[in-house]
């Protein structure tokens, strides 16, 4: 900085030879200080710029570009160029800094569509690639739960082999992105919803049931509500080798009118090759999963035995009707042992299930945070459930209700069925016990 000011003084003398030498010793003015400051900033910027390392791009021979099109809701397609290392390519040395890594970058060309697609999920390993010809993913995504922990079984793999729709979304998503004509619902805004009726439930099951999938896990009871053709049940049995499994299905009732307690629309449970075996071994229980008397009989006769392992997992995958879903929560959640979970599937925006998603679930969430402060005008929505609730975890179209450390409870019939406001959130969510309204 001194040299800069000195040089400025010398050039000033050269331009004005008549100026005495003593004038160069006068005190610096405010203008001189400001000038010196900004000149210093400029030189510092130039210096730092010369020290920057150039970005070294990987050689073209080490990467291959695969092009896919992401369907936009307007009908246009968004070309996406993703780079991934091929199996035949030479190994790219690990760069000194993460800023220099280029093999995991994604080049995106925008289109005129106003809708914004979510960014493509990339694997943390450059050796994991996704197939663009078959539409099936050969690599693992980075979201927690996609990759099972060591020793845990993989529900996506098991579910795909069993043919259950619980993992269809994951198995067809890439193909749907590449060719929207293969998507069952191509006009949906959410790309993952375009694969309906295929789901991505493997992430939740890998995360929440991973410990139960171990070959040396403690024995426990598992209940599925909604056997249908048994593909999901078969997947659960393979995924949970230490579970005593049970399933409830209405279609295996005797054929006849519903008003007579029978089923007139065919027995699709018979499609399962193990159907008779499941019946003979009291694994498959035929009846209405929303009927209290049938549920009580199933529980007390077949499951609540002196020699039975603890009930730890209940999955509702039945009629996808809001009232039935709420009944499953009220009847089964208190009976689950501490630390167990109740899973409700298929709460997507459809008419039959909407009230569970928009009215029942928010009330459960409110109760999760309930304190009962007498100075605050609030009340619990479901007084029989909140004392047992530890957490709520939801992924797309599926939610987990986790039991806390309180022991399992046997309620009477009145407290084992949903109250009138269970599917009408306005009373509990918007009104306090004193009648005041708050948002």
TrEMBL record:
UniProt keyword terms in alphabetical order: Membrane, Transmembrane, Transmembrane helix
Keyword Transmembrane: yes
Comp. bias (Low complexity): 60-74, 84-114, 122-142
Gene3D superfamilies, per the entry: Vaccinia Virus protein VP39 (3.40.50.150)
Residue spans of biased composition, Polar residues class: 8-23
Transmembrane segments annotated in the record for this chain: 33-50
Superkingdom of the organism of origin: Eukaryota
Region: Disordered, residue numbers: 1-27, 60-156
InterPro entries the record matches: SAM-dependent_MTases_sf
Protein name (database record): O-methyltransferase I
Organism, as annotated: Seminavis robusta
């Amino acid at each position: 900085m001194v040299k800069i000011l000195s040089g400025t003084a010398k050039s000033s003398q050269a331009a004005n030879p008549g100026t005495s030498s003593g004038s160069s010793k006068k005190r610096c003015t405010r203008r001189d200080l400001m000038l010196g400051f900004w000149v210093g900033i400029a030189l510092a910027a130039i210096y730092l710029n010369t020290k920057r390392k150039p970005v070294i791009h990987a050689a073209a021979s080490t990467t291959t570009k695969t092009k896919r099109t992401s369907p936009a809701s307007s009908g246009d397609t968004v070309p996406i160029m993703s780079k991934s290392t091929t199996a035949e390519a030479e190994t790219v040395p690990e760069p000194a800094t993460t800023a220099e890594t280029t093999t995991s970058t994604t080049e995106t060309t925008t289109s005129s569509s106003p809708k914004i697609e979510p960014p493509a999920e990339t694997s943390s390993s450059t050796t994991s690639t996704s197939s663009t010809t078959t539409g099936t993913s050969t690599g693992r995504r980075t979201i927690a739960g996609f990759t099972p922990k060591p020793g845990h079984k993989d529900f996506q793999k098991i579910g795909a082999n069993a043919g259950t729709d619980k993992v269809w979304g994951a198995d067809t998503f890439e193909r749907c992105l590449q060719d929207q004509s293969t998507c069952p619902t191509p006009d949906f805004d959410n790309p993952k919803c375009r694969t309906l009726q295929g789901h991505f439930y493997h992430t939740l099951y890998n995360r929440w049931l991973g410990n139960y999938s171990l070959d040396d896990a403690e024995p426990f009871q598992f209940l599925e509500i909604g056997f249908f053709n048994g593909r999901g049940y078969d997947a659960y049995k393979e995924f949970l080798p230490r579970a005593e499994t049970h399933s409830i299905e209405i279609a295996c009732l005797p054929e006849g009118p519903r008003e007579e307690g029978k089923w007139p629309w065919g027995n699709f449970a018979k499609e399962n090759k193990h159907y008779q075996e499941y019946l003979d071994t009291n694994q498959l229980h035929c009846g209405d999963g929303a009927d209290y008397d049938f549920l009580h009989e199933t529980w007390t006769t077949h499951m609540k035995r002196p020699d039975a392992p603890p009930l730890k997992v209940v999955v509702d995958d039945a009629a996808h009707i809001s009232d039935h879903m709420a009944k499953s929560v009220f009847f089964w959640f208190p009976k689950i042992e501490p630390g167990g979970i109740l899973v409700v599937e298929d709460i997507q925006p459809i008419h039959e299930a909407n009230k569970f998603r928009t009215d029942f679930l928010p009330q459960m969430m409110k109760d999760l945070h309930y304190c009962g402060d007498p100075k605050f005008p609030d009340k619990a929505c479901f007084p029989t459930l909140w004392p047992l609730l530890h957490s709520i975890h939801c992924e797309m179209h599926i939610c987990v209700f986790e039991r806390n450390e309180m022991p399992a409870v046997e309620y009477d019939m009145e407290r084992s069925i949903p109250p009138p406001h269970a599917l009408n959130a306005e009373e509990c969510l918007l009104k306090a016990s004193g009648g005041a309204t708050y948002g």
